[in-house]
Amino acid sequence: MNQRTSRVDHQGFVVPPRSITLWRLGQAGFLIKSPDGARAVLDPYLSDSCAELGRAAGFNMNRMIPPPMTPQELVGVNLFLLTHSHQDHADPETILPYLEAGGKATFVAPLQTAQKLRRLDVDEKQIYNIQPSQKIDFADLSIAATFAVPFAGDDLTHVGYLVSVTDGPSVYFTGDTAYEDILHIALVDRKPDVLVAVVNGAFRNMSPADAAKLAKYLNPKHVVPCHHDLFPDNSLPAELLRTNLAVLGLANRFLPLEYGKPFTFCIDR
Questions:
Q1: Distance CA 145, CA 12 (A)
Q2: Interior angle at CA 261, CA 258 and CA 265, nearest 5
Q3: Per-residue pLDDT for the chain (269 aa), expressed as one digit of tens each?
Q4: Is-above-0.90 flag for pTM?
Q5: 19-266 in CATH: which number?
Q6: What are φ and ψ of residue 225, in 5° steps?
């Protein structure tokens, strides 16, 4: 099932039973909604704050695609999921305007990201520290942290998330990670219906070939690429994932999502 609107209308969008709806926000960011109306946002990067950081490091990290919504429009989400502390995932220029607008979500974050939230003066009562194998439930959403392999020593507490709906589908967001067999071994008893894979090898994340290999082991119904098209110096064509899936006989699993448009995944009865 596929429902679309012309803007990120997460407030009024109705998710059918046994379903989950995703909105792609850019980079690794997604908005998630359940049939009971529970809403989570994952790694929203809704600014251009990485541009200055990129210039200082000699990279072009100017945003190439405008954000599909503002930080203030996130007010009303129940869970604010963060995979790690890097600027394009835990973005102060997204988090602070959201809080100033009255955002009250619980921030779910691994250790070093939780420390960053405290430096931003996020209320301690809003911070839920999580690590791989732990989970948090809200209404009909279940969020389990998964293992991830970090880029460098500045943050060694990366996680991914397995997001599940009661009696509905599950979606595995890899987060920024290199490929290791433990990624699929850890999910052998809870394989996802949808794999959302970070695909950009430039900063030691999975390459398209790595993501296809992970899909081969997990056997999801859909494979969604992300984190590959926002910055000039950290981009590649999503079709390279399709090519690598095709090599493994999985070409029909490839599912690129449009920015800001809802896609609803249903479990067949």
A1: 28
A2: 95
A3: 333 333 688 889 999 999 999 999 999 999 999 999 999 999 999 999 999 999 999 999 999 999 999 999 999 999 999 999 999 999 999 999 999 999 999 999 999 999 999 999 999 999 999 999 999 999 999 999 999 999 889 999 999 999 999 999 999 999 999 999 999 999 999 999 999 999 997 889 999 999 999 999 999 999 999 999 999 999 999 999 999 999 999 999 999 999 999 999 998 75
A4: yes
A5: 3.60.15.10
A6: -85, 150
Domain boundaries, the chain: 19-266
Distance CA(171)–CA(174), nearest Å, equals 10
Exposure class string for 33-68: b at 16+ Cβ within 10 A, else e: bbbebbbbbbbbbbbebbeeebeeeebebebeeebb
Distance CA 264, CA 127 (A): 29
Residues 25 and 35: their CA atoms lie apart, in Å, by 20
Nearest to 199 by CA among 241, 160, 161, 162: 241
Q: In what order do the strands lie in the sheet with 19-26?
A: 127-129, 106-109, 79-81, 39-42, 29-33, 19-26, 262-266
Q: How many CB atoms lie within 10 A of CB 151?
A: 17
Joined tokens for residue 66: 């405008």
d(CA 182, CA 188) in angstroms, rounded, equals: 10
Name the amino acid, one letter, at 160: G
Contact criterion met (CB below 8 Å) for 177 and 183: yes
